[in-house]
Design goal:
heterodimer, A: mainly alpha, 2 helices, B: mainly alpha, 0% strand
């Protein structure tokens, strides 16, 4: 999953630099953000043993 | 305030350069110090890259003379969202190690762990975006019109960031190998182990 996220981020960087398509930049960027948050959710396996 | 748009243009470069430096520092710790990044560490790098793409978006459109107030706002929004996502991960990692006696993950740098420094950088980005957004009526970034040293410096900074992101892609292929996710506490390069090298 990390490879996919970083590949998407690199794609977004290349699209921004080459000025290919603003729509595709936003789509790629958003997809990377959603996958990143999903992966974060996956890695949060237990509640914190803390009390505030 | 005629020079303000130009100042903003270079401030965006400072953002790109700063996060490129932070990620190069993380590489130094990984390759020289032999500390492998944990899954949460990598997620914070993604937050940094997502955030920096916002600044890159502004720089490249300013260079092409296509930057409008709407696109400027779009770039700043990407910057804040990326920083907020990264900060979410940093806070989780800080809270995992917040109890007294917990040594934390990895070696501290200048007295604080990398995830604490990461949170500080995310807050700096959010504050920076807040300030430049408030100052938007004064001006939006404007690139030098003629080719010359300034354009070359701009290209070098953009190129450095692209190289750092590409290096992260190569590093994660070696770290993750054929697995879907990174192990919680990585101790080597999965790909080399899986290939028996």
């Amino acid at each position: 999953m990390d490879i996919i996220i970083l590949a998407l981020l690199l794609t977004a960087v290349v699209l921004v630099v080459r000025g290919v398509s603003r729509t595709w930049v936003v789509v790629t960027w958003l997809l990377a953000l959603v996958l990143m948050l999903g992966l974060f959710r996956y890695h949060v396996t237990s509640p914190l043993d803390l009390s505030f | 305030m005629k020079s303000f748009p130009r100042l903003l243009f270079w401030a965006m470069h400072l953002w790109v350069l700063a996060y490129s430096g932070v990620m190069l520092g993380a590489f130094t710790i990984q390759f020289v110090g032999g500390e492998f990044p944990c899954p949460l560490c990598m997620l914070q790098r993604y937050g940094m890259i997502l955030s920096t793409i916002g600044a890159l978006w502004i720089i490249m459109q300013a260079r092409r003379g296509e930057l409008t107030a709407v696109r400027y706002a779009q770039g700043l929004g990407m910057g804040v969202l990326g920083a907020a996502a990264g900060a979410l991960v940093s806070v989780r990692q800080i809270l995992l190690h917040i109890k007294p006696g917990d040594p934390g993950y990895g070696e501290p740098v200048l007295g604080m762990h990398l995830y604490t420094w990461a949170l500080i950088t995310f807050y700096v980005v959010i504050l920076f975006v807040a300030v430049v957004s408030m100052l938007a009526p004064v001006g939006i970034p404007e690139a030098p019109t003629r080719a010359g040293a300034q354009r070359t410096i701009s290209t070098l900074i953009v190129g450095l960031f692209a190289l750092v992101v590409a290096a992260n892609v190569i590093a994660i292929i070696f770290l993750e190998g054929f697995a879907w996710v990174l192990p919680d506490d990585p101790t080597g390069y999965n790909l080399l182990d899986q290939l028996g090298l």
